[in-house]
From TrEMBL, chain A:
TM ranges: 56-76, 97-114, 120-140, 152-170, 182-202
Organism: Phaseolus vulgaris
GO cellular component: cis-Golgi network; endoplasmic reticulum membrane
Keywords, sorted A to Z: Endoplasmic reticulum, ER-Golgi transport, Membrane, Protein transport, Receptor, Signal, Transmembrane, Transmembrane helix, Transport
Phylogenetic placement of the source organism: Eukaryota, Viridiplantae, Streptophyta, Embryophyta, Tracheophyta
The protein's name: ER lumen protein-retaining receptor
Amino acid sequence: MNVFRLAGDMTHLLSILLLLLKIYATKSCSGVSRKTQELYAIVFIFRYLDLFTDFISVYNTFMKVVFIASSLAIVWCMRFHPVVRRSYDRELDTFRYFFLVGASFALALIWHEKFSVQEVFWAFSIYLEAVAILPQLVLLQRSGNVDNLTGQYVFFLGAYRAFYILNWIYRYLTEPRFTRWIAGTSGVVQTALYADFFYYYFISWKNNSKLKLPA
Amino acid sequence: SDVVAEHDEL
């Protein structure tokens, strides 16, 4: 575990905590894409199937359980919480996300480390995670105004990806025969999707103004 | 196996 990987995991965790805090404190999920949250729940469940077969570390197991539980809790709140569900921007969150699931699974059938159930699902989860933010970005762009917590949520989620890239570069330079073709390629694609958002986030931060995305 | 052991990241 290097410092970049730890920073990546912590910003990832922080992003999820920020989202839970926003929903809990404001009893509102306005500005949050339920489709993105459902995709993340699928991502974590299919990637962490190895919880039952491989033990890596207490840290690893703990984080996996936290990611699965928190993503399911967010989806549950947005679907079933009597107050929270009323603020869901249903009419703005119309991204056709089954397309993303299908395309990710098809790609996983073609490109994987090994042709086994667990490995194909692992690759599927990597590809799906790379594009899972799209419904959220589309929702933010449609709603125009972004509240602070939601903006910070997306910012930290993007920071997590950027730190993982630094982590792979570091590992490539320090570990013999280190390669992560599937995760690395997907990670670069995923991080690139945030570029536009980052640009406007930094402008609003610099001007000390509310984050607004152009229509 | 080697392949699975590579998944040490989250």
